[in-house]
Specification:
Elements: H1 2-23, E1 43-46, H2 57-71, E2 76-79, H3 89-101, E3 106-110, H4 115-124, E4 129-133, E5 143-148, H5 150-163, E6 168-173, H6 180-200, E7 204-209, H7 220-231, E8 236-240, H8 244-254, E9 258-263, E10 273-279, H9 281-293, E11 300-304, E12 311-312, H10 325-337, E13 360-365
Parallel strand pairs: 1-2, 1-3, 3-4, 4-5, 5-11, 6-7, 6-8, 7-13, 8-9, 9-10
Antiparallel strand pairs: 10-12
């Protein structure tokens, strides 16, 4: 009888696991546009600059939003501020107001440019919870900032490509050199490249620029700049700025060169992508929404890094040859344990302010 009971319980457990797996839905299979029966939408997302389906920051955050809503049977809607890359604070506020007036209990806002509008909206709608991805705490009971340790995955990307044999690198960042997340990505990237070069007993060259990235938009000027880098010997460029990716991969394709993606796994978007520096915006949105509705909400700042499984490299799609999954796992474990400490106090603009670098020459291109 005991044996039968044990087998029965094992079968129940297996069926439960199978059922959970069967119910799991890829966010890409969840409708972007749903229709609420009562015209109200409980969860809202206000996009950053660029398109919703940008295969990067917006899309990753949106996937977390709609995944949480889907998993919990809640209504959801996204709002894109008017005027696209030329959106003003008023445009962003209008999108948040529309979400609140449509019944949102929680509004997720992506990107640091949302700050001014979000603070205004949060004060006017104190019963709505605001989640500020890549933001900061505003001292309001209904707002939380979700930030990431981008320096960690930036470090991993820089270290990995140098260990793989790349010696002439580039970094093209968004936000004009004042975006904290991009600054941390870039600073971590230099640290990783420098440390790998030191281990190999060589010196690497890095071109580093915020040019044409203030609005994160793709542009002919940016493509021309990066083409010039490739034509003069740069082998791989870290494309750290959302839609800027399109200009950089176009330049790489024309020059048989390579790219490092950002925020999400961008290997599916271009054959030029060798590896991507991942940031768990999906996880950040999902986890923060869970706190809103499970009663564990606390205002302030949530910081996510390797220890929270929120940054890293997608080794399953990596085109790296010398830097292996085992190498990555060991390094990630050292970051989690604290054995490998990465400086996160990135300087705005010129990274040489934090130098000199022992095994890297950084050419700051303005």
């Amino acid at each position: 009888m005991k044996k039968f009971l044990a087998v029965f319980l094992a079968m129940v457990l297996c069926l439960s696991v199978f059922s959970a797996l069967a119910e799991a839905v890829n966010p890409d299979e969840i409708e972007d546009n749903m229709t609420s029966a009562d015209g109200k939408y409980e969860i809202a997302f206000v996009t950053d600059v660029g398109d919703l389906k940008d295969k990067s920051f917006n899309e990753g955050t949106w996937n977390g939003v709609k995944q949480y809503a889907y998993d919990n049977g809640m209504s959801y809607k996204y709002y894109k501020p008017a005027n696209d890359s030329a959106a003003t604070d008023e445009d962003r506020y209008d999108a948040m107001k529309a979400a609140a007036e449509a019944g949102a209990k929680a509004i997720v806002c992506a990107g640091y440019m949302q700050g001014t509008a979000l603070e205004k909206a949060a004060k006017e709608y104190p019963d709505v919870k605001f989640i500020f991805i890549d933001g900061w705490a505003m001292g309001l009971d209904n707002e939380v900032g979700v930030v990431y340790k981008e320096e960690q995955c930036g470090y991993l990307a820089g270290y990995a490509v140098v260990m793989d044999g790349f010696e002439k690198l580039g970094f093209s960042g968004g936000g004009g050199g004042t975006n904290p997340a991009c600054c941390r990505y870039g600073y971590g990237f230099i640290q990783g490249a420098n440390d790998a070069a030191a281990k190999l007993g060589k010196t690497v060259e890095i071109k580093f620029s915020w040019a044409y990235g203030a609005t994160f938009s793709a542009s002919a000027e940016l493509q021309t700049l990066i083409s010039g880098w490739y034509e003069t010997g740069t082998e791989i460029v870290f494309a750290c700025g959302g839609p800027m990716f399109d200009s950089i991969t176009a330049a790489a394709s024309a020059n048989d060169a390579f790219v490092i993606g950002v925020d999400s796994d961008q290997s599916f978007l271009s054959d030029t992508v060798v590896i991507s520096a991942l940031k768990g915006v999906k996880e950040g949105a999902y986890q923060s929404l869970a706190k809103v509705f499970d009663g564990t909400w606390e205002p302030g700042v949530i910081t996510l890094g390797a220890a929270e499984n929120a940054v890293g490299l997608p080794m399953e799609t990596s085109k790296l040859e010398s830097f292996t999954a085992a190498d990555y796992d060991a390094m990630l474990a050292d970051i989690v344990s604290g054995a490998l400490a990465i400086d996160n106090e990135a300087a705005e603009g010129d990274p040489n302010v934090k130098g000199p670098w022992s095994n890297a020459t950084v050419d700051y291109v303005q």
